[in-house]
Write a structure and sequence with these properties.
The chain is an alpha/beta fold. The chain has helices at 12-23, 36-45, 62-71, 89-98, 110-125; strands at residues 3-8, 28-33, 50-54, 80-84, 102-105. Helices cover 43% and strands 19% of the residues.
């Protein structure tokens, strides 16, 4: 069974690069949104196993999407990563206060992204699902 990842970033080129990098694993099915509003609608319509949200997006920011996902019963337990070029303590604090599971600074290497995503999923944080052991 493949894990479902929701990836949201307003930089479409970067988003596609990250999506392709994650999709190199056959056990990851990645959906992509270019703005926060679309990301939230996608998450609520078909809850993913993990969400990776850019912090600064049009419509709703990654922090706002995170807050709304945490407030919804269907998505409250989903691991949420905020991915951002902002590295200030204030940005990290805002993400954690919104309920983010982790905060990862940009840029991020694709191999590191895949490893970190799989670590979150394999640790049982993805709605009780377990991976088949591929790393």
């Amino acid at each position: 069974m493949a894990y479902r990842i929701l990836l949201a970033d307003d930089d479409e080129d970067l988003g596609n690069l990250l999506r392709m990098g994650l999709s190199r694993r056959t056990d990851l099915n990645v959906s992509f949104a270019c703005d926060g509003t679309s990301a939230l609608l996608m998450a609520l319509e078909s809850p993913p196993d993990l969400a990776v949200l850019d912090m600064m997006m049009p419509g709703l920011s990654g922090v706002e999407v995170c807050q709304r996902m945490r407030a919804n019963e269907r998505t409250s337990g989903i691991p949420i990563v905020i991915l951002s070029a902002l590295t200030s303590a204030e940005a990290m604090s805002a993400a954690k206060a919104a309920g983010a599971t982790e905060y990862w600074p940009k840029p991020i290497h694709l191999s590191d992204l895949r490893c970190r995503v799989m670590a979150l999923l394999e640790n049982g944080n993805a709605n009780g699902k377990k991976d088949n052991g591929n790393v």
